[in-house]
Amino acid sequence: MKLFPKSSDLWLKSLILTLYFILLVTFISILSVFVKTRIEMYEAQLSSFRKAHEMTASLSFILEEHINSVYRQMLLENVLNAWLQKKDYTVLDIYDLSQIQKSMINIVNSDPELVSMYLYNKNNGTVLSTNYMFTSIDSFPEKELFNQQQPDDKGHWMNERFENVGGTSHSVITFIAPLNNNTGYVAINVNRAKLFQNIVPGESVALTDNSGSILAYTGATLGKDSPLSPVTLLQLHETDSRPISISEHFALVSSNAHGKWEIISLMPHTQLVQLRLPHALLLLLLLMLIVANVYVICRFFSKNYVKPMKEYKTNLDQNLDDLQHNFILNILTGKIKASDIRYRTKQLGIQLQSQFLVIVFHIDDYYNHLLRLENEDRFNTNKTIYNAIKWYFSTKCSSYTVKAELEKIAILVAVKEDADTRQQLADLDKMIRYIQKEILDTTGLTVCAGISDIADRLENAHMYYSQAFKAINSKLIYGKHSVIYYKDVAVHSAHEYHYPAVDMNKINTSIRGGDLAEVQKLLDEFCDNLIQSGSVSIEMINAMLANTLFSVVKYALELRYSLDDIFHQDIFIPLFSYEVISDKKDYVVGICQTFIQYKKEASRSSNKTLKLVLDYINKNYDKRISLTTVSEEFNINASYVSLLIKNELGLGFVEYVNELRVKKSAAMLCDQRIPIREVSEACGYDTVHSFIRNFKKVHIVTPSEYRNRMNH
């Protein structure tokens, strides 16, 4: 009887157990590599599909925005609007039509996405296009495009169709919109092939309008059972970065918030690598993973997890402020994916309510202020202002402050849902004005604040950051040291604002008349009218005020004044350095006042100056004398000297000097003992030839002939 097994049995069992473990590990490794490879292939294909969709959607929306900009450009064409108002067509309109067609052809030729454009004049029933002759609507091959318009239509897209351009057939989709209060329409034809040039193999892409109607598609056939049928498309909504599954297809949908297009991309399930594995295999995989990982987890847990986690937490605590700053800045600038925001906010310990708003502080004239400081003072000033804003807001409310730009500081402020919103905004206004006063008292700098609307999704923070920036840009109207709410910023109207030429003429007349009060009144009226019209822009303000300065310069040059003597600077450059309307206007009024005062003083001193100039000429005309010598003698501009003499005597400087010299020479010629050359030199002429020529201009005869006549 064997009480103990043989050593060979123990060895065999050990061998079997070892082989079993080796096979188990090998099987797990092979299965893991297989699953990992399939997952990577699957994710790579989804990523390629998503990138292709995003590229197609981005290009499409950019194209749609471009078409809208072309349409808005045509709304502002004066020649086009004038033609649309004419009910009768005459031969005199040929030039205008050629200019309109030339403009349309330039637009089409400059943009490879555009195929052609049509203009339809309802008043006279004619059509002008880039690829057809000027013709009536009844004879126009594409007249059906204009027969489906509704009275209240503000622009819509037509389904895909074919068009022949230069012998080549193009598949196009057409944007049709009214012009000049529905007196005409424009049709812009877009090349369909340009929309679908970036799709991946097997992908189907459809372009739809807001109603779900398919404008164009590629890679799929529409039908009753097709996943691209209009009924199915209407059930789709805009997706995030992960595609949705519908009718055995993966779908991605993107729409343009300000446009009329939606882009839908579909990829059949069969085109992607399948990840389905037998259930028994999955259970076996799970069991083997548990067995294989128990030992690893127990053995290396403290070494590979506890210690790194402690190091990670230490580093996180030390750099938390910088990490939070960069994360908030990336949210505001839209540089982080929406899907990552919630995870990162929790990871960094950022606590915000579901509602918030964005404040942007803009430090006025900050660059010029820093240039006046030493390097160390610049750093301290920058740090002092930032820390003052950051710590004050952090003690008063839940907020996160970031340095957006050198002169701009942005704050993300939480808004409590269970409190009175109006009261919270009032408290916030007080906080902002307190900070403005503290910075002004401490540094002497004014600060303008822009406040966005209240938002309810952190993913949209970049939109409200943009609102705050737009509010800041309106300080042109509101002035420095102001608090500007985005909701109060006037929305610029779409109508054309005509340049006030009549007002400019009045200002020019007032400058020439020396009426400073009238100049200021006209400038005030212009700025007020521009603001009330909703068309205020920095370009329009600068143009009007620069033209006023140009009127001053032009009048000064007409009077032969030296601009350096009056202003001692380039008067145009400072105008563009001011940031608000009131400063710009005060600067221009100051320039006008300086010029008018200078003109008055110049008028009072001109008579005295003229007497001194004439006395000097009468004493020195028989010497070497010129406008330059006179101007240097009295330290006045040579052109001004010439103007004084011309206005008083009706003669130019050279004519007056020559008159004096000829008069003296005539008296000397009566004495025959004096040679002609000595007479010439005594009267200030450089050469005898010059003397003879100028003498003959006055007396018709030469000096010799004059002498002979006087002695006979």
From TrEMBL:
Read off the lineage from the record. Answer: Bacteria, Bacillati, Bacillota, Bacilli, Bacillales
Record-linked InterPro entries: CdaR_GGDEF, Homeodomain-like_sf, HTH_AraC
- Coiled-coil intervals, chain numbering: none
GO function term, MF aspect, one: sequence-specific DNA binding
Family annotation (Pfam families):
GGDEF_2 (PF17853), HTH_18 (PF12833)
Instruction: Give a yes or no for keyword Transcription in this entry.
Output: yes
The keyword Coiled coil is assigned to this record: no
What range(s) does the HTH araC/xylS-type domain occupy?
611-709
Protein name as annotated: Helix-turn-helix transcriptional regulator
Keywords annotated in UniProt: DNA-binding, Membrane, Transcription, Transcription regulation, Transmembrane, Transmembrane helix
Q: Which organism is it from?
A: Paenibacillus cremeus
- TM regions (residue ranges): 15-35, 280-302
SUPFAM superfamilies per UniProt: Homeodomain-like
